[in-house]
Amino acid sequence: MLVKLAAVFWTVGLTCGSPSHGENEQSFGYDSGELDPLHWATEYKTCSGKYQSPIDIEENLVTKVNLPLLRFHNIDTLPTSTIITNNGHTVVLQLNYTAPVMISGGPLTPAYKFNQLHFHWGVNDSLGSEDLINNHSYPMELHMVFSNTDYDDDKIALTKNDGLVVLAMFFEITKEDNLVYSEIVDSLAQINMPDQSTHLPVGFTIRSMLPVSTEHYFTYKGSLTTPPCLEVVQWIDFKHPIKLSHNQVQAFRMLRSKHGQLTHNSRPVQELSGRPVWYNVGGFASLNTPIIERSCASPFGLVMSDIILLLGCKLVALMLF
Ligand SMILES: *[C@@H]1O[C@H](CO)[C@@H](O)[C@H](O)[C@H]1NC(C)=O
Ligand SMILES: *[C@@H]1O[C@H](CO)[C@@H](O)[C@H](O)[C@H]1NC(C)=O
Ligand SMILES: *[C@@H]1O[C@H](CO)[C@@H](O)[C@H](O)[C@H]1NC(C)=O
Ligand SMILES: [Zn+2]
């Protein structure tokens, strides 16, 4: 049992970006064959769970809500150091800051601390994102992973169903290069092979990576999209995509995995299994006072603005729990 758990954390370390050199690294992939997503559950039983990610989000089936403002903390400072790694499955960036980058508010009760960010992409510009919107796939998706500050460390967070939050951002193709991504894209040539890492001399602020509006997002409970697929993630998918040029996305497809070229790394969509998906319509700040906002900040204190205004937060919270 201990060995099994160790294996689980080992692999999570990999998918969460710790550069590593173990044999386990080879134990999942995306190309058809015995390591492909359809076979992940053979080695990782938890990948056959009921509430897995990614999913297809159908806009006409989501529940519209008006959540407290999603708050970002310390996202305007440059990191003191940034390491970019090709871990054989994705490109992962780890950043050190003088003060921790955190998010709170929105659907979140405690604050969550930034951990790492990484990307998913497809073989061409017509697909590549993991979550789909109305069955539409974007060419690339960014995942910023945050861990619950109520738990002592990230390994404990991985055992709790409110352990992680992932902010997901979609990309769409535009003619112009996105200069925020220049340093990342330029560094990819230095991490062509799996397990290669390099420092980014400048780095970037987290704010510069966010879409123009963070008010409009889909949110649902799901899993890590790589083995062991633990169902510990509150997903927050921003509606507004970020622009990137074809050449910038193409640079990611040139990287190597352990098995060949890392042309794509998206898990296919999983069954919704009756889960609710919420869509935040925004505008909370203009409708509510800060005091109400605080008492509303509970997980799935997800209520329509009208209901909040009519009943008040406490009552709604009682109804929900
Ligand atoms: C962050 O700082 C720690 C301690 O100095 C160091 O070991 C680690 O490599 C740094 N990480 C990054 C991403 O620079
Ligand atoms: C993109 O790749 C997918 C998957 O291989 C393929 O089905 C599709 O036809 C390709 N689209 C274009 C425009 O090449
Ligand atoms: C989404 O696409 C899949 C595969 O093309 C199809 O089977 C499914 O019915 C579509 N879902 C919706 C809601 O259109
Ligand atoms: Zn991811």
From TrEMBL:
<keyword id="KW-0862">Zinc</keyword>
<dbReference type="GO" id="GO:0008270">
    <property type="term" value="F:zinc ion binding"/>
</dbReference>
<dbReference type="GO" id="GO:0004089">
    <property type="term" value="F:carbonate dehydratase activity"/>
</dbReference>
<dbReference type="GO" id="GO:0005737">
    <property type="term" value="C:cytoplasm"/>
</dbReference>
<comment type="similarity">
    <text>Belongs to the alpha-carbonic anhydrase family.</text>
</comment>
<keyword id="KW-0732">Signal</keyword>
<feature type="domain" description="Alpha-carbonic anhydrase">
    <location>
        <begin position="26"/>
        <end position="281"/>
    </location>
</feature>
<protein>
    <recommendedName>
        <fullName>carbonic anhydrase</fullName>
        <ecNumber>4.2.1.1</ecNumber>
    </recommendedName>
</protein>
<dbReference type="InterPro" id="IPR001148">
    <property type="entry name" value="CA_dom"/>
</dbReference>
<dbReference type="Pfam" id="PF00194">
    <property type="entry name" value="Carb_anhydrase"/>
</dbReference>
<keyword id="KW-0479">Metal-binding</keyword>
<dbReference type="InterPro" id="IPR036398">
    <property type="entry name" value="CA_dom_sf"/>
</dbReference>
<feature type="signal peptide">
    <location>
        <begin position="1"/>
        <end position="17"/>
    </location>
</feature>
<keyword id="KW-0325">Glycoprotein</keyword>
<dbReference type="InterPro" id="IPR023561">
    <property type="entry name" value="Carbonic_anhydrase_a-class"/>
</dbReference>
